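Example for tutorial group B:
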């Protein structure tokens, strides 16, 4: 069941990407691609048409909020934003860009996996309608 969903991980820190991919794959999720900046997020979204994009906010080349704004014009993928900043302005801007949920770094498995599962369940309900 979990394998049917396509997930993309976007974070400029390769260790964070590796950890997230490993956590998801250990639970049977299908991580189809990963990238290091928002520009890659946009390109990978066009290539893979993911169900879920897990993306950092602060990255070089293009940040996660800018990428989310572009992706929203092309895809209905759920977007889980990862941020080291829990400032109200970041949260408010994330909402206007179409972010579905966010987690504050460092990401803990006991928070991360339920968030992923919830977003994919919501996606499943949308697909079934």
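The residue assignment follows.
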């Amino acid at each position: 069941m979990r394998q049917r969903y396509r997930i993309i991980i976007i974070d400029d820190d390769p260790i964070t990407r590796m950890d997230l991919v490993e956590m998801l794959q250990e639970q049977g999720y299908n991580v189809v691609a990963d990238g290091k900046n928002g520009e890659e997020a946009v390109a990978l979204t066009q290539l893979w048409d993911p169900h879920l994009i897990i993306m950092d906010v602060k990255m070089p080349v293009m940040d996660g909020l800018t990428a989310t704004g572009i992706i929203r014009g092309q895809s209905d993928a759920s977007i889980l934003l990862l941020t080291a900043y829990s400032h109200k302005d970041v949260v408010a801007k994330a909402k206007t860009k179409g972010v579905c949920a966010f987690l504050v770094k460092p990401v803990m498995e006991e928070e991360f996996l339920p968030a992923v599962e919830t977003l994919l369940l919501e996606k499943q309900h949308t697909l079934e309608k």
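Strands lie at 6-10, 30-35, 52-56, 78-83, 101-104. Compare this with the pattern of hydrophobic and polar residues in the output above.
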